Each structure stands twice: as structure tokens, then as C-alpha cells.
# Entry
Amino acid sequence: MSEGDSIGESVHGKPSVVYRFFTRLGQIYQSWLDKSTPYTAVRWIVTLGLSFIYMIRVYILQGWYIVTYALGIYHLNLFIAFLSPKVDPSLMEDSDDGPSLPTRQNEEFRPFIRRLPEFKFWHSATKGILVAMACTFFEAFNVPVFWPILVMYFIMLFCITMKRQIKHMIKYRYIPFTHGKRKYKGKEDVGKTFAS
# Structure
């Protein structure tokens, strides 16, 4: 292996211009992602706006239904991962190796930890919409299909998958949303602080 054969290095051992450009681009992208983290509502509004633009584009072009179907399946998969606990209680039922969700009234409270956190859910959903939008610019992805069949398949798949997920939630008694849950508070501190 000669000098300069390794990835991202120039002949003199310094990183190449292309490598530095993409590294810097990745840093800027990550910086913007980090800045957007606390703005949950704004992030989802932008994603819904992109989704609306995508739907209008598909409607106007009258095509790319298979891409839209694939996007719907991808979003359904992300949504199921978002609703699921990180550790599946059905697998943890027989072993006492790790944290599990409470299944009885007198068990200790354990918070719900998602398999796919909200931020990663949003990020993946947005990237999926952008990839689908990019696919609409290439005629190769415009496979002719009878779109009502795809809509029917998607509705059936959604109903079956959500029914299974809801049964799982009921069986293992967990709610993936925090709205309306009881909040547990510790004892109030009634002691006085001492000043020195």
C-alpha cells in the first residue's frame, strides 16, 4: 500500500479536500440537527408540510404510486417502533435479567422507554419523505400499478398491524404516551436550610 492510498488522505498524509469538505458538511448538518432538537412542534410541522408538498406532487404528476406505497410502509414501520418498548416484555416475561414494564398493580414504577425515540422517528420520517420526493424526479421509479389496490393493501396492513400492537399494549399494560398518566412525586422536603 503506497502513501496516499488510504481513504481521505492525500499524497502528503493530510486529509484531502474532498474528505474535509464532506466532514465539514456533516458537522454543519449535525449542528442544525442539534439546534432543532428542542423545537418538537416546529419540526413536525415542517415534516407535515413536506409530506403535503409530496402528496400534491404525486397528485399532479399522476404517478409514482409504488414509491408512495413504500413510503407509507416505511412510516408505518417507524410508527410501530415508536409505539413499542425498547425491551419487549414478552421476551422478558420468563427472565429477571433486565428492566421490564410493570404488569401488576403493586410492582415498582418503571418509565416507558421507546425502541425508537421521538427525535429519531422524526428524523427518519423526514429523510424518507425527501428520498421519496427525489424519486419522483426519475421516470424509472414510476412503475405503472393500479393504485386502488395499493391503498387497499395499505389500509389492511395498517389495521392488522395496529390491532396486533394494541393487543400487545393491553396484554402487557403499557401506554406509550405520557399524556394522562399519573405522575409520581417524591416526598416534599420540609427541612430548613442552614446558612453558614
Notes: The chain is about 55% helix and 0% strand. The CA atoms of residues 36 and 43 lie 7 Å apart. The two ends are 68 Å apart (CA to CA). The mean pLDDT is 83.
